[in-house]
Amino acid sequence: MTKQPKEKKRSFNWEEIHRRMSAVQKGIEHGMDLSPEEKKKQLKERSGRYARSVRMDTAIHEVAEVVVFTLAYETYAIESSYVTEVYYLSDIVFVPDAPSFVVGIVNVRGRIISVVELKRFFDLPQKGITELNKVIILQNKEMEFGILADEVLGMKTIRSDTLQKPLPTMSGIREQYLKGLTNDPICVLDGAKLLSDPKMKID
Q1: d(CA 153, CA 50)
Q2: E strand or H helix at 76, and its extent?
Q3: Residue 106 falls within a domain, yes or no?
Q4: In the listed set 60, 93, 114, which residue is the last one of a domain according to the structure?
Q5: Is the N end or the C end of the chain the one with fewer CB atoms within 10 Å?
Q6: From CA 74, how far away is CA 20, in angstroms rounded?
Q7: Cβ-based neighbour number of residue 83 at 10 Å
Q8: Alpha-carbon distance 77 to 182, whole Å?
């Protein structure tokens, strides 16, 4: 068996490499005299790298806009894609034989919408209806209903990688409908699960 000749190791002139890199950096800082074609090519390469970076970041870190509101003494949020509007609570009609978490129905410009109190649905401490109460109307293709909030705090953008797992104390029905917790902390609800729950459908 013949021995293969050993491959010669490449030797690098690191001093020369550093000198060239330094020269390129200085050229960038002070502006190189490029032709229009070279400038166009350079801009195209930079924009391509930036676009790939944005696509990669979006794929890894999903971004969502949420509506933030309070329930009792906790702060919650739900994706704005499921929120059609915020309705100022006025008259509400009681519905006989409805589940305990259904407060009643409201007439929103001719649309009859049931209103759910998530504090009862999640077994949270009651705070009572105040002047701050609003109805956040949720909707998808199959269902539409309102959830009662003590106060609507506004909009916020969150990234999926910042969400933490629900605390061990959040067992039962709340954990089932939670996407996760932010560092604030805000409990981010799963709008898709709420809107697909058959218990939310009131005949």
Answers
A1: 34
A2: strand 74-79
A3: yes
A4: 60
A5: N
A6: 59
A7: 20
A8: 10
Please give the model's pTM, rounded to 2 decimal places. Answer: 0.65
pLDDT digits (tens, 9 = 90+) for 171-190: 566 778 888 888 888 889 99
165 found inside a domain: yes
Angstrom distance (rounded) from CA 170 to CA 173: 8
pLDDT in tens, 91-109: 889 988 888 899 899 999 8
Q: Using CA atoms, how far apart are residues 130 and 116, in angstroms rounded to an integer?
A: 16
- Residues 6 or more apart whose Cβ sits within 8 Å of residue 114: 95, 98, 102, 104, 105, 145, 146, 200, 202
Q: What is the total count of domains within the chain?
A: 2
Indicate if 77 and 88 belong to the same structural domain.
yes
CA distance 92 to 71: 19
3-state secondary structure of 158: strand
DSSP state of 93: B
- Alpha helix locations (H) across 82-197? 118-121, 173-176, 191-196
Per the structure, the complete domain to which residue 26 belongs is given by 15-60
Q: Are residues 27 and 108 in the same domain?
A: no
